[in-house]
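Model: You mentioned two targets. I'll fold them one after the other.
Researcher: Yes, keep them separate.
Model: Target one:
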Amino acid sequence: MAKICPKGFRPEDLENPTPIFHLLYTQTVMDGRWKLMILDFLSGGAQRFNQIQKHLDNLSQGSLTKQLKEMDADGLIIKTIHPEVPPHVDYRLTEKGRDLLPILEMMVAYGEKHTKGGSYKSHIKT
């Protein structure tokens, strides 16, 4: 899992977690430029690497591999290698990954609410 800060979680946070600890943990597992879009795409079912890459406008193989490895390490997805020639690999959400989908839906609703009237334009770099 990516760390919240260079030193990670403090031992006292792990022993006696607070609400902010849980918030930061959730932020940490979702952190990554492409993870939200990967989660959304995999919500439709298992997908092969190339399908994910094409969905993300041909994101580089290295960047996608890094995000998928982190998501696998965090238990958000399962990588399945099918013994075929050539190898067939697919990715799907785990229960832990599916538990994030309502958060994505709330983020969409927030974005829809707060981008009415062009208020989003100040956040877009041209």
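Model: Target two:
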Amino acid sequence: MYEKNYPNKRFKLTLQFLKKHISNSETILDLGVVNPFTKIMQENGYSVENTLGEDIDLNTSTIENSNSDVVTAFEIFEHLLSPFTVLQSIKADKLVASIPLRLWFSSAYRSKTDMLDRHYHEFEDWQFDWLLEKAGWKIIDSKKWTHPVKKIGIRPILRWFTPRYYIVYAERI
């Protein structure tokens, strides 16, 4: 599948960033259950295993027992109460992680129907950088992008030029 065929800007930019830093010969542990982006990584030649849906705030054994070269975490850390603990438990020397950025004009996401689908943290870029550095990671590269929506209003207009997503490539110090 070619990148231009992905309907989602986030998937396209995430894949471009991943390809820039991670080779197909490196194995990946993707935090979170199998998802559409897992399949995209596999279609692009990556060997990917996922965590099994366990609460990784409480149980980091899958992360600690993984022999993967790289850990990816795409829109995961905002759902955790303690992302610091998870970041410290990673044995791999490489990390590619993305988060939704905190928007000054919109409150944190909270599903009204799914108790688990909530954002406990919506970071500013400097806060996420600090968290990574404190957990023993050095940021090598990063990128931000917007997420416009096809709606009318002040917030949708602000989304055209306010970055919503932030992705980093980091290496263990």
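Researcher: Noted. Anything on target two?
Model: DSSP finds six helices and six strands in the chain.
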